[in-house]
Specification:
This protein is of the alpha+beta class. It contains eight helices and eight strands; from the N terminus they run αββααβαβββββαααα.
Length: 220
Amino acid sequence: MLIGEALAAHGLIVRGGLNFGRDEHAPPGPSGRAARAVVLVGQAGASAWPYFRAWRDSQPVDLRDPLDTWSREVIGGVAAQFGARAVSPSDRPFVPFQQWAMRAEGLRPSPLGILMHPRYGLWHAYRGALLFDTEIDIATGGEGVHLCDACVDKPCLKSCPVGAYSGTGFDYAGCRSHLHAGAGEHCMSVGCLDRRACPHGAAYRYPPDMQVFHMKAFAA
């Protein structure tokens, strides 16, 4: 069985990969020595959502960080099948997932910080990665068209009711304060308005219950 086939059983996909340079500081692979390669694992749109929801229904109601827990369980199982070490974006110490993703897929950040994908827009995610002791045969993405460069109006910076996103960064405290107030009920019920304002990747937009899940997790 190929890695992609094993991940597809859970709605996940290979998001690219790369081989580390000999002089590059890489995290430990399965042997404990510096890894030689990494394969990124993630989702396109809501591909993994039904699988996560089915798993979540069988778990305790008060389970903390359920999506991270599910991702670690699934990707850890795939890692065991293929002799890899699994890592998560929330693991400490942090590993540079976004830098790996930009190298592997040739992506660049949007004004919201989320990497802009030429097909999925802002509606995709990285759920983990597989580290290997040996190099892998995988093509890295070249520098492609960055959709944000051609976007003049930047609706993603104009739809938030409290202007949380701007050219200078993200007002984390301002966003959370708004969500915790009565005025933030609309955002909590439909998802981030700035993210929804982006016209790209509309076919991959997360369904309402998935957006509500992420908003609740952010506001908690």
